[in-house]
Every structure is written in structure tokens, then in C-alpha cells.
Here is the input.
Amino acid sequence: MPFYSQSREDVLKSLSTDGERGLSSEQVSQLQGRCGPNKLREQKKKTNFQRFIDQFKDVMILILIAAAAVSFVIACTEQDPMEFFEPALILLIVVLNAFMGMMQESKAEKALEALKDMSAPHARAVRDGEEKIIDAAELVPGDIIRLEAGDYIPADGRLLRSASLKSEESALTGESVPAEKDAEETVPEKAPLGDRGNMVFSGCSITYGTATAVVTATGMDTEMGKIADLLDSETDGPTPLQKRLAELGKYLGIMALAACAVIFVVGLVNGLEVMELFMTAVSLAVSAIPEGLPAIVTIVLSIGVQRMVKKNALIRRLPAVETLGSASVVCSDKTGTLTQNRMTLVEAYGDGEEGPEQLTEESSPAVMKLLQYAALCCNGSVTFRDGEEQHIGDPTETSIVLAAYKKGMPREELQEAYPRLAEIPFDSDRKLMTTVNKMDGKNIVIVKGAFDMIASRCMAGDLKAAEKLTEEMGSRALRVLAVAWKEIDAVPETPSSEELEKGLHFLGLVGMIDPPRPEAKAAVATCRQAGIKPVMITGDHVVTASAIARELGILQEGDRAVTGAELDAMDEEELDRQVEHISVYARVSPENKIRIVKAWQKKDQVVSMTGDGVNDAPALKAADIGCAMGITGTDVAKGAADMTLTDDNFATIVDAVREGRGIYANIQKVVAFLLGTNIGEVITVFVAMLLWHKTPLLAMQLLWINLVTDSLPAIALGMEAVEDDVMDRKPRPKNEGIFAHGLGIRIVLQGCMFALLTLIGFAAGERITGTLEGGRTMAFMVLALSQVVQAFNMRSAHSLFKIGPFTNHKLNWACLGSLLLVALVLFTPVSTAFGLVSLSGSLYLLGLGLALVPLAVMEIVKACGLIRH
Here is the structure.
């Protein structure tokens, strides 16, 4: 008989578990060994060998292999053993590049796996009689789990207890409306899945209510597991940027083939040997291809994501890193994100005083008496453990208790000195709370609550002045409570409002607020400076929200604050007209959030939206960047979001945008560096062939340059620290290409500069040494060293000497490694195999001088303002 048609007692018996104490640790160990982890079968991961083979599917790599094959055929016809060195080196470098690609892919996957583990779902399970938070993967049949609104259901379970429970089961049943659940329901044996009202199912979520359930199935035995093979599994495909770069690689390959065709025609017309033309074609094919580009971009993205984790931003999807750099509107919750989510008493007014006092200053006797009486009329408490405050009870009461504590009046000591004799609890009709305390031998009634309710019960005190102050403090978003007192002869047996809450003496007012986070104001200012519009969205009152927004700099001159009701009254056209002028939305619903997101998106803005509840999930998905709260956020919200803020802090969103901009800028630097050098190589070979009908660089020389002077510095360039002025720039438009703002033209011009310097070196070397090998040695040295120098130039649009030439330590080591590898080929017996010869000291100095020209040129260009962000 299935679990859903059995009684709760029979289910617990058949699973050998206790409904109150749960499973024992020994039972859990046995069941974990028998049932395995509570996970769906994952797609088979690629082995390193499969990753290695996949590297050879790239068009650019296939062109290189074809080049090696041509070179091998030529070596066979020449019958010179040394001729086989070139095809062997091309293949070795192709294999080495494939190995690097495999290792980088593996490293990137491990980094993303670590992030997935950090965001893995958890479950509240009762084991050995104690409730514990455990990884959902550790659950076994028989575990007792607790569920509440916002939780993902970690395994299939039979309900034991439930209260107003509803579960979202659309992923399993297709039902768009949450299903009502009841532990008491009797379900027939052949009931379809959607009618099993006493069961909850793995992969679904709780939208309302609370429940306790016993796990009946885990992993592939769950209802979700049975259809797992039919489900679309979430795959991490290439990001939009990676796709564009893959296309770019294809275009470069086509460009190389077109250049080869032109060279062939020119060579044949000029009577050159076919074999020599083949070798030149091989050189061109090699020079056109940035072998390491796709792998380097992947590693830069994954390193960037790891760096963001340290800044409390957990990125769940790689494309979000690119999108973050474009964020132009940041919509944020108020409570806990912009504010501290802790009511704090900031002002107090004693009756008869001139005005309210700030509690940061020394307090008058009237205010000290006010705080003493107010603290005695509170049930909330504040404890201190390991230097941290723990607030227990109503936040308004704990703010009063903490304020009294800071003035040397701990609540425990007050209660001991002035014991409570009677109490009338707070209720929403009276809006008052009353206690009777024994104070210095007298029975003192203390009443605290809303000013208007207390004022009508007072017979003494300056109530007109207090009324004005209440309005003034309220306009500054302070929550105001009034305190009054009187003395009575005897404590009534059954205290009543009519008897105790009249004929009072007005004592004073206390004003409290959920204060803004100290770092939020600076973060909002950074947003404004970066061209990002900050928007506050809250369920709080519009007056409170507006005051906080004004203090933080979100609500400025000319901006509006609207309520959810006013937003509902606007049609789409009016909202489109108004949205750019609205900075605060108060009393809004989750449906309102989606409208706000879509209204901004119609303006071609990139919108970031925060959320923590189940109902926020659609808005988080609709936003370009959904940000879930890591502390207060539900599992459902985190699952729908692109990013989770592990500290629930607005400043973290701004930091994440900053990091996103920095990562994208670094990728642009890497792409510009690699393509600039490759274009330089193509132009060098192409122009030399047209002018002198000879190739200035052999294929193996070009491959050595591409591998040792490109790849290592390029990876280090991708780890460049985020520039200080990255938040001084306007957001990048949503569909802006990577080569925007003249970057493409600059890449071509830089390529022309490398080509010109290399051709000058080639011509000088050949003329002075009188040999083609001497010219090639000069060309090799100038091209290799100038690219190492260019790696430093690419670090910033600012002068290299302004940012500090050697402040990127990883780049320093990478370039040092590149220089040593170039020296290995130039000055050791290996040079013979590469077709290089020794040069005179003057030629080496000339080569070094030519290699430093890019530094001077780029510094002049930067100083003239020709390179800007």
C-alpha cells in the first residue's frame, strides 16, 4: 500500500522512525549507505580526456593541424631531418594548447562546482530528538523534516502535521495554482499525483503555511526522480561574450584563408616555388589565430566570480557577470538592505523640556526617568553573547530596553528593584500596554503606546507641545511612542483598562527608527556617480520610506515617491512616462515589482532587483539581474536569482556592479591584447610577401611567440585589479559590442604598429647580416619583446606610470617567464631548430629599442586623450 493511503502511524512504523525524535545517528548512517545521497542523477561529467579531445573541435585549432600536415608533406619532399622540426613543433604546441585549455576548463568547472556547493539547498531535520540544519543531500527515508513558506521541499514526504499548507507543484503536475495540503486527508490508493493532498514532493516549494513531514523517498526514487530523464536539466552553456568570441575565431580563420589565397596568386605570378608558398600559407594561418583566447576568457570569468564571493556576492550564472557591468537601475528593498533591520531609539522628550534630546548625548533627569519607566513597561529583552547583541521580542520594545541599558539601567536590575505587580498586555484596539510596578513603596501605573490614545487619557502635562513634537518627529520617519503614569493605592484583583488607563500624568515621548546602514549612503552616492539610478522598493509607509530615501540620497529634488495603490491606478502608458522620475515605491506588492522592472526595461535599461520572499521569485526572474537575500531570503527566491547577497547589504550590490565592470574591462583588455598582436603578425607576413616575396617569420617562430609571449601575460592581464575610476563611467548599454568606442579601430592600428616595427627589424637585420635568417631573428626578437611591453600598456587607459608600472605582480611574473622563454630560443643551441642565428650587439640594442617603441607611442596616445573609456 502506498504511503499516501496509509495512516501516519503506519507510515512511521514501516519507516522505523519516531515522529517526535526522528532517526538515530546510527540509523542515518545505515540508510545513507543503503540509499545513497539525496540527489537526482546528474549528467555524466566530461572526463579530462573528453575535454582534451573537445579542444580539437575548434575551427582555429583545425586550421593549425592542417598547417602542420602541409608542413609535414613539405618536410617529406625536402628529405632533410631538420625540416620535420617545424610540423613537430606545430603539433606539440597544438597539443600543449589543448592541454592548457583542458586544465583551464577543469579549473573553471571546479570553481563553479564550489559555488554550487555553497548555494546547495538545506533541510531542517529532527535527528536524535534535536532539530538540525543539514545539507538536503544527506536526507534519508524516515527523516522527520520541518517546512515553512519559502522552503524548497528537499525530498518526497508524508505529512504528519500541517497548518494552512500550500505547495507549488507546477514543475511536477503542471498545475499553475498552488495545491492545498492537509496531513489529516485520506487519499485513495489509486489517486493521481495531483490529488495526493497528504504528500509533499521533492523539487516543489511551500508557498504558505507550515508542516512537519516524514521523508518517504529520496534521490531517484522521488516522483521528480522518476521523470528526471525527461526534465530539462540546467546546463551552463557559453556566455554571450564567449559565443561572440567563438564567432570571431571563425572570422579570423576565414581571413587567414583569404590572405593565403591572395599570397598564392601573387607568388605564382612572381614565379615563386609552390613549396615556399605553402610554407608562407602555414605561417599566415598560424599568425591569424589567437589560440588561447576562448580558454583565457573562461578562466578570467571564473576567477572574477571567485573574487566576487569574497565580496559577499554569490553568482549563480556566469552570464550575470557580463550583465552586472551594464546595470543602470538598482531596485532595492529598504528593510535590512538599505537599513540595519534593527529599531534604534534615537530621540526622547521629557514633558516640560524645551525639545527632544538625542540619546547620543548626556540625558536630562526627565529623560532618564522617561527611559526608566518605558523600560519597566516592556516585555522585550536584549542579551549579550560573545560581544553580540541578541534582541528577543518586539523590536520597538527591545530598542527601549537597549537605550536604558546604555544609560546604565539594565532591564533585569530595574525589574528586580521595581517588581511588576500587574499587567494589561498590548492590543491593537487600545494601542496601549500597561504595567503596575512597586516603586519606592508606591504602586505606580506605567502606560506606553500611541500618543493620540494616551493624550485622551491624561489629566496633566503639556499635551499641545507633545502633539506638535509627535507630528514633527513622525515627518522624520521616527516611530513615536508616548509614556504616562499615575499612582494608585491598591492593585486591583483583575486589572482593567477603564480603571488603570485614565487620569494619567504625561511623562514624555520616545522616537525610534530602523537606521540606514552606515555604508548605504556612500553606496548610493557611488551609484549616482556611476550613472546608475537607485530605486527604493518597500512594504513600509510612504512617509517613513521617503525620509530614509531622502537621508540616503535616493529621493532627490524632482523625484517622486508613490504607493502601491497609486501605482495600481496608473496604466502602462502613464507608468512609462513617470517611471524615470519615481525613486521610492511604498506599500508595494510582488506584482508591482514586475511592472516596475518591465517599465524600466522598455527604456532599454538593465535592471537589478532585490527580493527575499516566495512571491518575489517572478520579479527576480524578470529582472536582468535578480539579487536574492542570503540571510532573510527563501530557497525559492535564491533559486530564481542570478546572484545571492550573503550579507543582505545594498553596498554589496554596488560592489558587485563594480566587480562586474572590472571583469568585463579585463576581458576587453585581454581580447584587445591578443587580437592586436595577431593582427600585427598577419600584416607582417602579408606585407613582406607582397613587397619582398619572402616570409619574415616561420610558422614555428610565430607559434612560439603566440604561446609564450601571448598566453601567459594575457591570463595575468585578466587578473588586473579593478581600476579606481571604473565607477566614474556611465553604464554600458545592453547590446553594446566588445569592440565599441573605437576599440576595434585601436586594435587594428596597434597591429599596424607591431607590423611596422617588425618589418623595420626584418629589413635592418637582413641588410646588416646579409642573410634571410638574420632578418628573421631580428623580426622574431622585435615582435616577441614588443608584445611583452604591450601587455603592460594594455593594463589601463591611464598612463602606465600613473598607475604604477609593476603593481600587477602576476603580470610581472608572467612577463618574466615570457622573456626567459624568448631568451631560451635566442641565445641557446635551440635557436638552430627555430631557424635563428646570433646577432651583433648593436642589432640586439636596435631590436630592444624597437620593442620599446609601443611604450612611448601608447603613452603619447594616452596623454593626448585618444584612448578613453
